[in-house]
Amino acid sequence: MKEVPVVLPEDEVRMHEEDRKDLDRAKEKNRETTKAAKRALRVARETQEVAEHTLAALDGQTEKINKLDGKMVDMKEDVKNSESYLRYITRACVCCSCFVKDPTIKEEGHWSKEVKKQAAIEKKAKALAKDKGKGKAEVERTFSETGRPDKLKVVGEMVPMKVVGGEDLKEIDAEFYVQDKALDEISSIVGNLQGMSKTMGEEIAKQNVMIDELDTKATPLKDRIRDMNTRTRLNKIHLKKESNSSVINDVGSTLIKTMK
Question: In what ranges is there compositional bias, type Basic and acidic residues (predicted)?
Fold first, then answer.
């Protein structure tokens, strides 16, 4: 049976029936590619949104760690005042305690050394972070100034069939335009994600240093509080013994007076 050619009215290009079927299949594949590009773009946008929220959460976490460091200094001052009150009470109750060496003097010197060490480490960490990478604001500014990075390379050029024209060509061109636009935006998002991931790594490294230093500060403070609790319990026991001996002396004096 002889094949009947199909005439395209737009440009009068003749195509056989088999070629027309191939063209329809190619157009269908092209539409599927466009849908896949749109899905990839949607995933890229969602990923960028999650990364932005994560970076904001890291910034908030750094502020909380800084506040905790300030609270730790306040706790140190409170413990210092409590130790002063405890020394006063001890000296008022036990006279010989005035000749005993204050055990907190050594802890004060140790705390001062730790504070100086912490300040030096924080200064070094800030300088390293400044030289090593850019912050979130600088990353965003860089991308706004330089524009989108080079678009991703597409494997294989999708060239329309030369025998196609008219509405078919317009449809294919429109699909190509949507795909190219989606790839441009995906490429830009990938560049932004690279900058944000670098900023996140630097922020996490900075927080790790801060947390280690907080632990260094908390350890001697915990020991001082434990020592204060021990001394307070000993003072209570001493006062209780003195109170009992005083009662016995009063009873003995009363009995002696009665016998006389």
Answer: 11-35
| Residue environment code for 193-228, b if the CB has 16+ CB neighbours within 10 A, otherwise e | bebbeebbebbeebeebbeebbeebeebbeebeebb
Closest CA to 92 of 238, 230, 250, 255: 238
Residues 99, 232: Cα–Cα separation, whole Å: 18
Stated pTM of the model: 0.51
| Res. 31 pLDDT band, cuts 50 70 90 | confident
Tokens of 95: 């006279």
The string of pLDDT tens digits covering residues 136-190 is: 555 455 445 444 444 444 434 444 444 455 677 788 888 888 889 999 999 999 9
- Residue pair 165/10 in contact (Cβ under 8 Å)? The answer is yes
